[in-house]
UniProtKB/TrEMBL annotation:
Taxonomic superkingdom: Bacteria
Lineage: Bacteria, Pseudomonadati, Fibrobacterota, Chitinivibrionia, Chitinivibrionales
InterPro entries: DPD_II, FAD/NAD-bd_sf, FAD/NAD-binding_dom, Helical_ferredxn, SudA-like
Domain Dihydroprymidine dehydrogenase, first and last residues per copy: 18-124
Protein name: Glutamate synthase, large subunit
Limits of the FAD/NAD(P)-binding domain: 138-445
Pfam family, one: Fer4_20
Gene Ontology molecular function: iron-sulfur cluster binding; oxidoreductase activity
Amino acid sequence: MKNSPRIPMPERNPRERARTFDEVKKGYTEEEAVGEAKRCLQCKKPLCMKGCPVSIDIPAFIKELSERNFERAHDIIKNTNSLPGVCGRVCPQEEQCESLCILGHKGDPIAVGNLERYVSDRNMGGHEDTKMPSVGRKVAIAGSGPAGLACAGYLAKRGVAVTVFEALHEIGGVLIYGIPEFRLPNAVVQAEIDELKRMGVVFETNFIVGKTASISELLDEDGFDAIFVGAGAGFPRFPDIPGINANGVYSANEYLTRVNLMQAWKEGSKTPVLKGQHVVVMGGGNVAMDAVRTGFRLGAQDATIVYRRTEHEMPARVEEIHHAREEGVDFELLANPLELLLDDEGFVKEVRCIKMRLGEADASGRRRPEPVEGSEFTLPCDVFIVAIGTKANPIVSRSTKGLETNKKGNVTIIDDWGRTTRDKVYAGGDIVTGAATVILAMGAGKDAAKAILHDLGLNED
Ligand SMILES: Cc1cc2nc3c(=O)[nH]c(=O)nc-3n(C[C@H](O)[C@H](O)[C@H](O)COP(=O)(O)OP(=O)(O)OC[C@H]3O[C@@H](n4cnc5c(N)ncnc54)[C@H](O)[C@@H]3O)c2cc1C
Ligand code: SF4
């Protein structure tokens, strides 16, 4: 059994799924999960764990799973990861734990992510209240994305009273408003949030830290002992090309928020979205893949990725590119938009692009794309979505004296534990690193929680 191939996770048929928001990957059956878990060698020096930013005891949870001790497996994961249903779905495991698994040298690595997802889904919502006795301290958290949620969970587990302030009307950050339901169902995020509520975490929505109340007010008037800032990097960047202000142009964040959070796909939605026939997305990351596949699900006839390098350099997960292709997405690689051409009413109707070729490597180590003279071409386009990255959300830093930021507007931290230049204020996740990953944001939230406990004299390193 041990050197057998990895058990694949069943997926919905591409034709059927390309028009619905149902989850693409269906999850393992019990026999599939246990079978996959039994492939694990239970290494004495498990390299897989080195690849996990939150150090889940991977062999231990897999062993319990292989023996059908599902709750014990869940408890082991939960010890270090408060959002396993999320991470099992969206973490880039192929670059992390799975890339280091010893079985990968000669065959398929263990499907750690699929197993994590199985254990989490099996235990979803089945737990009692887990509120810890109070230690008499209270901490505020700005932002309810994975960084804020991980920080909240870690502190609540140790008896700290935690209030999470969220600017939007829903909790979860990008997990709820960004990543579409066909990859991460909102119900999975909700179940993990409910668990935090059972631990005593209080959530206040429609509360913008820096506007509804300042950090100073929260600390000095409301008596919070510390604040963790996990406000994310939700500010879109746009290319400087003619026509970019036209009707029918969206940032990927706005487009996905309208669909995921405001349910714009529903007839009569109060926050509608243009349902284009020819959707063109500029970019090559996970965000671009999510946007283009969403375009299809809203009924587009064709949906195209325009990316200036080759597929090899695309930052999106290989699995996401594969799924997009299977669903019929077109890829215009080595191409860059030059201009949007508009109709008489100011709506985008075509995008003029130019072919690119790869030159010398740039600072990122990737070969720099250069335009090929005279290679312009046009694509029909009535919805143009920009997915070329985002910037730090500036509201908290601009409104907080003494909270320093770097040139990019990211909050500066002065050590590896999320301490900032302002006393009692900690930060982590995309607001510090710029757009990154769920698991890195969670790791940062957890590290900051440890620092907070230490600084409050609650005995953590
Ligand atoms: C479409 C999309 C797809 C992605 N796919 C993946 C993937 O497959 N795998 C992966 O690992 N990562 C993925 N990412 C990246 C990942 O989601 C982020 O790195 C992660 O969510 C960052 O977490 P965070 O907690 O720092 O910030 P966020 O998730 O951005 O959460 C920040 C929260 O703070 C709130 N906020 C902002 N300002 C304030 C304020 N002043 N007061 C109160 N609240 C405030 C925001 O409303 C938001 O809810 C994706 C991102 C996007 C946009
Ligand atoms: S490295 Fe692979 S085989 Fe070894 S313990 Fe980790 S998951 Fe199991």
